[in-house]
Amino acid sequence: MRYIYETMYILRPDLGEELTDGAIAKYQGLLQENGVTSVETQHRGKRRLAYEIGKHRDGIYIQMNYECDGSQVAPLERAMRLSEEVIRYLTIKQPVREVEEEEEVEATA
């Protein structure tokens, strides 16, 4: 069964435009290598953090929405945890809307 996941991560504010784009491409590629087909990425820009994280007061916020069976989340989070450029990340599993479930049942019937 496939679920919709949302991963929000914060990059260091001192990364340039090129390194930021590279990091986004790296994490999108990691998901696609593990079988995720549709990855929607939103670059939320540099924002003030609610509290200081590792001497950083600002961060570059990136949001990714994707659909998978859940086995792809662990490798993504491991890569982010080991990365020097990511200062925080959070992945949540979003509930599948009932309308989508009904459409799937009708399509298979």
UniProtKB/TrEMBL annotation:
GO terms for biological process: translation. GO terms for cellular component: cytoplasm; ribonucleoprotein complex; ribosome. InterPro entries: Ribosomal_bS6 (IPR000529), Ribosomal_bS6_sf (IPR035980), Ribosomal_S6_plastid/chlpt (IPR020814), Transl_elong_EF1B/ribsomal_bS6 (IPR014717). Keywords: Ribonucleoprotein, Ribosomal protein, RNA-binding, rRNA-binding. Gene3D superfamilies: 3.30.70.60. Pfam families: Ribosomal_S6 (PF01250). One of its GO terms (molecular function) is small ribosomal subunit rRNA binding. NCBIfam families: S6 (TIGR00166). Belongs to the bacterial ribosomal protein bS6 family. Binds together with bS18 to 16S ribosomal RNA. This is Small ribosomal subunit protein bS6. It comes from Oscillatoria acuminata PCC 6304.
